[in-house]
Amino acid sequence: MSPLVLRLTLLIALLAGSRATAQVARLRGADRVSFPTLTDGNTPTFWLDGRLHLFSSIGRPLQISEWSNDAVGWTTANVDVGSLSDKAIWMEAAWVDSDRTVFGWYHHEPHDATDASNLTAPKIGAVVSFDGGHTVRDLGFVLVSGDPDDAEAKNGAFTGGHGDFSVVLDQRHEYFYFFFTNYGGDAAGQGIVAARLAFADRFDPVGKVSKYYNGEWNEPGLGGRVTPIFPAARAWQHADPDSFWGPAVHWNTHLNEFVMLLNHASGEPGWTQEGIYVSFALDLSRPDTWKEPAKILGTSGFPDWGLFYPQVMGLEPGGSDTVAGATARFYINGLSAWEIDFVPDEEMILPPDGATRPGPIFVLPRIPL
Q1: Domains in the chain, start-ordered, CATH in brackets?
Q2: Residue 215 needs a FRET pair 20 to 30 A away by CA distance; which of 87, 195, 237, 268 works?
Q3: Residue 211, SS3?
């Protein structure tokens, strides 16, 4: 092969490789809007009877809000949680069947996880509702850590456990995929991890969820081992952990890919927000294929270091926190002062000579609260 042909071959290969990994998510400022209630976690949304619904949680009470129309706006009511009334729960994911059955998944923080009253180890449970989410029946815990709690943890909140998650259904309706944070055990196992539940098992999920470990989905949801998708750089036991957490995943109809938004804790106090990151993947069954997270919002664009839980709200009919298109609303802690554009590689047209091509990071001015 001649040197010229070799150089051309390498150039084509490099260009092909760069195009395969070139999607970006770009933020831009927009009129401020917010969810109708206080939120402390991913806020799951769903459509039922032509109305947008959302669960909002701050531990207690669990609430459901419905958007009626522009004249009425939001109406909000407390959810009857039945046997969960004595538990602090944060509903973080939801799904609606075609027969109007609503499924939800919650983050629970037990109060007896350690003698230190301000520390706990979260678990993930499931509920079902037959009245549009106004009453829920507990189906039990589906994801519980198998590692011992560490009562000496210095992050200010958790001694270990699984929590701060989202759930998304694959495009074939075969599995619900859980993407969550593992806060305990060996440092090598902490960070963003995954599990899945067969769609057919959604009514009876306890003991049916499998965790992802060493390339397989064979570990039990109750006590099994995990392999991180994005490992913690510094363990959560420290006062200054360095880890992604709180993944929010949606299917993007414009990219034809799944998108994950992430918090990034770095430094003291233990939950200091260093920035918001984005990752992309085609196949949920292969967690190892999620792309390296890229920062889309840094501290200079944050209203406050303590705002967490990035998520989208799709703007098209049927759009939600798990389905969005080319442009969506971008929320943090229930507040949106941005829209987010998702750009696939084929739409990245080279600019004219001398022009500046926008990059994947858009820094916003600080927003006063």
Answers
A1: 24-347 (2.115.10.20)
A2: 237
A3: strand
